[in-house]
Design goal:
It is a single chain. The protein is α/β, with parallel strands linked by helices. The protein has a single domain, classed as TIM Barrel (Alpha-Beta Barrel), CATH 3.20.20.70. Helix content is 54%, strand content 17%. An eight-stranded parallel barrel has the order 1-2-3-4-5-6-7-8, surrounded by seven helices. Helix 1 links the parallel strand 1 and strand 2. Helix 4 packs across helix 5, helix 6 packs parallel to helix 8 and helix 8 packs parallel to helix 9. It binds erythose-4-phosphate. The site of erythose-4-phosphate has 11 residues, from helix 7. It catalyses: D-sedoheptulose 7-phosphate + D-glyceraldehyde 3-phosphate = D-erythrose 4-phosphate + beta-D-fructose 6-phosphate. InterPro entries: Aldolase_TIM, TAL/FSA, Transaldolase_3B, Transaldolase_3B/F6P_aldolase, Transaldolase_AS, TSA/FSA_arc/bac. It is an enzyme of class 2 (transferase).
């Protein structure tokens, strides 16, 4: 399973990348705005900076919602770096844009996926990734993991190469459950990745080993 970090914060991207387990980055307009990135030039420069840190797929989301505008914006984003993945919302014009970019060999990530039907349409249109949002489904008391299972089954039934990129991942159990189901990628903030490291028995065991190692010197 691939690990992407879901942030536009360069420091956190560097920290995750330094761990040696990072395969890519996802961003969205809210995450970019949180870092104070505004204006065309600053946006493009920020994506360049991310591409300089991480050697992997970097999702850059279009801000427009009409077919023509998404094509123009996506083409500009795709020119930044070969690792840029054009992130497109699951709307009617978005499906058409996915097909356009897929035909041109430009990678895409279809975002805001909340149903198996949406994922199926995006796969049919040739999306590289679909992003089902787990945490936001949990927030409205819906079984988000069941959605991942459904999408996995459908993609396997028809051998779709579209990858399931589990998004809106809030904690380490989301990551473990996605791995059990067979999501291709999880994207999440740095904290849930770091919390995979932690176990109280590891901490107490190491403390004891350090203590005992003093007797060996
Ligand atoms: C996915 O690509 C989104 O950027 C992200 O995972 C949304 O997460 P949130 O629901 O925690 O905002």
């Amino acid at each position: 399973m691939k690990f992407f970090i879901d942030t536009a914060n360069l420091e956190q991207i560097r920290e995750a990348n330094d761990l040696g387990i990072l395969d890519g980055v996802t961003t969205n307009p809210s995450l970019m705005a949180k870092e104070g990135i505004s204006g065309n030039e600053a946006i493009l420069q920020h994506y360049k900076d991310i591409c300089d840190i991480v050697d992997g797929d970097i999702s850059a989301e279009v801000l427009s919602t009409t077919y023509e505008e998404m094509i123009a914006e996506g083409e500009t984003l795709a020119k930044i770096h070969p690792n840029i993945v054009v992130k497109i919302p699951m709307i009617k014009d978005g499906v058409k844009a996915l097909k356009y970019f897929s035909d041109k060999g430009i990678k895409t990530n279809c975002t805001l996926i909340f149903s198996a039907g949406q994922a199926l349409l995006a796969a049919k249109a040739g999306a590289t990734y679909v992003s089902p949002f787990l945490g936001r489904l949990d927030d409205i008391s819906t079984d988000s993991l069941n959605l991942i299972e459904e999408i996995r089954l459908i993609f396997d039934n028809y051998d779709y190469s579209t990858q399931i990129l589990a998004a809106s991942v809030r904690h380490s159990m989301h990551i473990i459950n996605c791995a059990k189901i067979g999501a291709d990628v999880v994207t999440c903030p740095l904290q849930p990745i770091l919390s995979l490291l932690k176990h109280p028995l590891t901490d107490s065991g190491l403390e004891q080993f350090i203590k005992d190692s003093q007797k060996m010197i």
